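Thread: Newbie trying to understand structure tokens

Hi all, I'm a second-year student working on a class project, and my supervisor (Dr. K.) asked me to get a predicted structure for one chain before our next meeting. I've only ever worked with sequences, so writing a 3D structure as a token string is new to me. If someone could post the tokens and maybe explain what I'm looking at, I'd be very grateful. Here's the chain:
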Amino acid sequence: MSDKSPGLKGPILEVPLPTEAISLRRKPADEPDSFFGRMMYNLQFIRGRGALEISIVLIVLLTGYVIASLISPTGFAFLNPNNLSGVISQSVPVLAILGLAAGILMIAGEFDLSLGANITLSAIVFIKTSEAAGLWAGIAAGIATGVAVALVNGLIVVYTKIPSFIATLGMSFFWMGAGIFINGTSPAALTTSREGTMEYLFAHNFGSFRSQLVWLIIIGVVAWFFVHRHRLGNHIFAVGGNPAAAEAISINTKKVKLMSFAIFGGLVGFASILIAVRTSSIQPGGTATEDFTLFAIAAAVVGGTSLTGGRGSVIGIIVGAALIELIRNGLLLAKAPGFYITLFVGVTIVIAAIFNKLMEGKAR
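---
Reply by user tm_fold:
Sure, no problem. This is what the structure looks like when written as tokens:
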């Protein structure tokens, strides 16, 4: 511990923040030397974040799906190449990127329930700009729209201190209306601009995988280093876990929260591009993108992200998204009615929240 001289700007005390997040991120000095010992040690280390437990559930579910598909290849076509490509290379990457967006914001202690409206508006701007000015301008406009929408929401939340789930729920209707104002009630559609580079970058089928999976790997690696290894990621955990302690060591909590909203918006804007290129059109005011709000939060919660902030992991969120998409796929293959999917996701969120609460108690 050390302190700065009076009158100088900067931290008053250079000490670890007394938050759960910081304590979970630090390992004792007696790490084993052998490979097997380090592997078991690291598994134990990530256990407190919930990633290990949810990974075990995912493996058990996958094993059951594979056995069921081998027994009845036509009745439960999970191993069909088209089904595997659709789930693993298309559905999981988009939900995982949205889950990372929602999860990072939740670690900072905030929610954004306008995620679905943000997707629609960003996709509309991306489509119209791409059609008018080309692909690169469209990408920049789509991501910038996502960031701008999230920052407006963040400014309202940070400076008015209105609970984020109330402020962003209200703003979701505003952003949905903005999409209709820009495009009208007819669908915004990609025409000839989708061919060539755009299709190759965001929806190309490489045979055993698609472009979306590559983007998930890139974004996942960058997010992991930022959230778990960078100083600013540490600040996000600190602000979400213990805002008063963060302010005590001169962390600007407002800037950190706005940064978290901006990251959220950038990831949502990018995911909207993946969705727009895959579907080729977006319906303004429609409800097709609204489900992403619930499922993105569900992916974060199932992956071990705390609803009260200060706890979560990138790996856990990605595994949580994969688990939810696999469950949805299993219900569809079993020909379950559509409303059972939403019902199951709602129950899963509640169970995961209870489980995370129990894990938080064990991790302390």
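A couple of things are worth pointing out once you decode it. The CA atoms of residues 131 and 193 lie 6 Å apart. The chain has 15 helices and two strands. Feel free to ask follow-ups in this thread.
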